[in-house]
Amino acid sequence: MVSELIERVTNKYKKTSIPKIKVGQTVEVSTIIREGDKSRIQVFKGLVIAIKGSGVSKTFTVRKISYGVGVEKIFPLHSPNIADIKIITEEKVRRSKLYFMRDRVGKMSTRVKKGNMLVYENNEETMGKSENIE
After folding, report:
1. How far is CA 7 from each of CA 15, 56, 75, 88, rounded to the nearest angstrom?
2. Which of these CATH numbers, 2.30.30.790, 3.40.50.1370, 3.30.565.10, 2.40.50.100, describes 2-128?
3. Burial 86-112 (b: 16+ CB within 10 A, else e)
4. By the 8 A CB rule, do 46 and 23 touch?
5. pLDDT tens, position by position, 4-22
6. Which of the residues 65, 84, 114, 124 could staple to 30 if both were Cys, CB 3.0 to 4.6 A apart?
7. Which of 8-12, 72-76, 94-98 is modeled with the greatest confidence?
8. If we measure between CA atoms, which residue out of 99, 1, 101, 3 comes closest to residue 52?
C-alpha cells in the first residue's frame, strides 16, 4: 500500500527519454547551470564508474581527468537540471563499480582496458603485459 502510493507520486518525476546508461561507457552529460537570472548549459564528459539506486533516486557517477586531477560528479538520472546525456563510447567491463580507476594515472585513467594477458613461456604461466603476442 505505502510503496504503491510512493510509486504513483514519484512516477510523474521520471524522465522517459533517457538512454540506457551502463558502467564503462564514456558519456557527455549536459547540465543546466543557473546563475542569477541567466542559465547556460555546461558539458561534463567522462567515464561512468558507478550506478546506484533505483527509480527516481537513481544516480550515476562520472569521472574525468582535468589538468592532471581526477574529478568525479554524481548526477541524479531523473534530475530536471540534466538537459541531455550522450553516449560517446562503450567498453566491456566485468565489474559493477569501477573504483579501481581512481588509482590509475595517464592514459590508463581514461580508458577501461582488458586485463593482463596470460603469457606461456617455457611451460610456465606468468602474468604480464605482452606487446606483440597475437
Report:
1. 14, 9, 21, 32
2. 2.30.30.790
3. eeeeeeebeeeebeebeebeeeebeeb
4. no
5. 888 888 888 888 888 999 9
6. 84
7. 72-76
8. 99
Q: What single letter denotes the amino acid at residue 108?
A: M
- The letter for the amino acid at 122 is N
Name the one residue in this structure whose C-alpha cell is 502510493. Answer: 5
Can you give the residue ranges of every domain in the chain? 2-128
**Rounded-to-integer distance, Cα 32 and Cα 54, Å:** 23
In the chain, the amino acid numbered 99 is: Y
Would you state the cell numbers that stand for residue 6, as one nine-digit string?
A: 510512493
Q: Distance (Å, rounded) from C-alpha 19 to C-alpha 21?
A: 6
Euclidean distance between the first and the last CA atom of the chain, given in angstroms as a whole number? 59
